[in-house]
Amino acid sequence: MEKSIVILCGGGPAPGVNTVISTIAKVFLKEGYNVFGLHKGFETLFKENPNYITFNFDFADRIFDRGGSALIMSRYKPKEEEFKVDFFVKNNIKLLVTIGGDDTATTANKITRFLEKNNYKIQNIHVPKTIDNDLPLPDKIPTFGYQSAKNEGVRIASTVYEDAKTSGNWFIVSSMGREAGHLAFGIGTACHYPMIIIPEMFNKTEITLDKIVRMIISSIIKRKIYGLNYGAAIISEGVFHFLNEEDLKNSGIQFTYDSHGHPELGLVSKSHIFNILLQNKLKTLNIKIGSRPVEIGYEIRCTSPIAYDLKYCTLLGIGVKKLFDEGKTGCIVVVDNYGNIKPLYLSDIVDSNGKIITRMVDINQPDFKMVFNNMHFIKEDDYEAAKKWLPNPEDYDLLKILNWTIKDIEY
After folding, report:
1. Residue 375: pLDDT band with limits 50, 70, 90
2. I need a surface site. Which of 109, 125, 196, 285 has the fewest CB within 10 A?
3. Is the model's pLDDT at 217 over the cut of 70?
4. Which residue, among 149, 142, 7, 134, has the nearest Cα to 67 in the 3D structure?
């Protein structure tokens, strides 16, 4: 029986998924393997009739530079009692390639161990995918898709900023990012946004909606001092991961709630929440500034990969074959900054609870501090000028809001 491999994708889309799929298919087809692509990931793997396609060179070649994914993705996580060997035995599968984040990699490892216990030996190699850039790859290597998603986010955010200049308004932009602020920081930096807010900045104080709103107002007033009545602030959705639930419930925003009584944040625009709260606060201060909400989220996940990710994802796909030939399994494929292919084992990047460690923005690095110092916000020497709009400017001093000192932003 001919040897085969199977590829599946978990989680949400990211630019470059098709490049990885295409490259893996081509390098294994070249060596005489059957290449199967599983639709809906783990959701159909153990069903009686798994939903899969068989790759050929023509199909693989047609998809490599497209956005989205030729394989339908799913966040489904099977329970161990669902595991079966049928699909693997029937098709003589020698390698399970998973493309996704930490959950996908963890599930794949469980399946590999199950198959081994049932006397079916199979290798598993994982390709790290997330636009959030929050997997702890060595040497600050980005996760694939991040650069392309950031590039599309910059295109949108730049247009928004141009609208602010043209219309004399402010825009409140929210960016995807799960826990970490990489996307918001990268987009905001590239667009010269006067205010960038990411969860990592709250390392010395609790995150609250009130503090976020005051940080935006700090920028608005500083810009007024400069004679500018327009601007844009970008906020990472990651702040919601750390917000106190009572703070959300007391915000005045009308949420729907799940069966456990938690606000269903996925059903509302984060930028809309911030904009409403901002306008409410501005009204109490009698400051007349127009602001509009803009969400940067699903719009950037399926954009076509830029040259960076086309090359990077091609190397990752070739790297899967290299690690497979070396007998590696239960690992993530990594391409280092010199183009070397290396395995990264999950055991090396998990915490004591077995959860993959989230890579956050390092606010102690010079790049963050340089950007922070270039943002517009009220400092102590602005108090007198700010009194024209604010009765208590010290409450809008960004360093005081964050409980930072000058030493925290020196570089």
Report:
1. very high
2. 285
3. yes
4. 149
Nearest to 243 by CA among 255, 228, 229, 226: 255
What's the rounded Cα separation, in Å, for the pair 331 and 353?
Answer: 18
Q: Is 132 a catalytic residue?
A: yes
Q: Tokens representing 366?
A: 């010079």
Identify the active-site residue in 102, 132, 134, 397: 132
Angle at 108 between CA 95 and CA 146, to 5 degrees: 95
Distances (CA, A) of 39 to 72, 74, 153, 326: 5, 8, 28, 28
Res. 241 pLDDT band, cuts 50 70 90: confident
Q: Order of strands across the sheet with 341-345?
A: 52-54, 34-38, 4-9, 93-100, 123-128, 331-335, 341-345
Contact 149, 300 (CB under 8 A): yes
For the four alpha carbons of 21, 26, 31 and 37, in that order, the dihedral sign comes to positive
Q: Which CATH class is domain 4-145+305-348?
A: alpha beta
Mean pLDDT over 241-256 rounds to 79
Mean pLDDT in residue range 35-60: 92
Residue 207, SS3 per DSSP? coil
Contact at 8 Å (CB) between 135 and 352? no
Q: Measured between alpha carbons, how far is 318 from 273 in angstroms, rounded to an integer?
A: 44
What's the rounded Cα separation, in Å, for the pair 28 and 20? 12
- Judge whether residue 281 has pLDDT over 60: yes
Considering only CA atoms, which of 97, 111, 116 is closest in space to residue 37?
97
Asked whether the predicted pLDDT for residue 260 surpasses 60, the reply is: no
Find where tokens 């190699």 sit: 125
Separation between Cα atoms, residue 308 and residue 141, nearest integer Å: 12
Q: List, in order, residues 6 or more apart from 72 with CB less than 8 Å away.
A: 39, 40, 51
Class of CATH domain 151-301+378-409: alpha beta
Q: Which amino acid is at 248?
A: L
Span 42-59, average pLDDT:
91
Cβ–Cβ < 8 Å for 153, 189? no
Kindly report, as residue ranges, where domains of CATH 3.40.50.450 are found in the chain: 4-145+305-348
- Full DSSP string of 265-317: GGGS-HHHHHHHHHHHHHHHTT----EEEEEESGGGTSSPP-HHHHHHHHHHH
